[in-house]
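Researcher: Let's walk through a ligand-bound prediction step by step. First, I give you the protein sequence. Second, the SMILES string for zinc ion. Third, you return the three-dimensional complex as structure tokens. Ready?
Model: Ready.
Researcher: Here are steps one and two:
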Amino acid sequence: MIRSSDDEWTDVEAYDLEFRSAGDEDAWFSVRGLLEGETFLIKFLGFLESSDLRFNAGDFQTLQAVDEFVRRFRPVSAQVQDSECSKIVQGLTVCSSYEFKCDDVRFYDAVVDAVHHEQHSFKKEEECMCTFVLCWKHGPNVGNLTFANIASICLIQSVEQLNSRVASFAKIAKEKIEIASLKSGAISESSLLHHGLQETEPSRQFGSAGRTTEGRVVIQMS
Ligand SMILES: [Zn+2]
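Model: Step three, the predicted complex:
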């Protein structure tokens, strides 16, 4: 994915979703989700239009695949104010940034393994001096413990209410699968009928053969 220049960082509030990318990247990105007919368009905050992803409702083969797609979205995680550091407690899953190199930051989930509280500084405004030990759940540091400060930690928001555009798209995709399965059901019914006909033919032959030898066989067959 190619980052856009800073002046293209507009309308940040419209990017109200986090999307977990698949494949090698496997990071959370701030995105904007747009439903265009039966296509779901994902635009990545801070990346060029060439990074946009399009998913077609008809591309999903199973209901589970739709559910998995839905699970890749959540509301955008909230930055923690220095005065709110008590919200970051041991055992909590947070979304934290990892800097690959300057200006190339990715977000991954991590569990707070320990919190080392320190006296906050009040030189200018309240500044959290605490250190948080994170155990990473995915990304380049998966399974590793690292130290983090509050600036790199975001609070994951509840997914209680699924984003309406994601929900509408999932509904369309599921309806398509159900229609397709009804159609394939009709096909298998006709193939079953066909198969049944094939089965009756040898029986008839057997029956007719039986008729010449033993009448009772024919009566049993019918
Ligand atoms: Zn603190």
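Researcher: And what stands out?
Model: Residues 143 and 179 are 42 Å apart (CA to CA). The chain has two domains: 1-76+160-214, 77-156.
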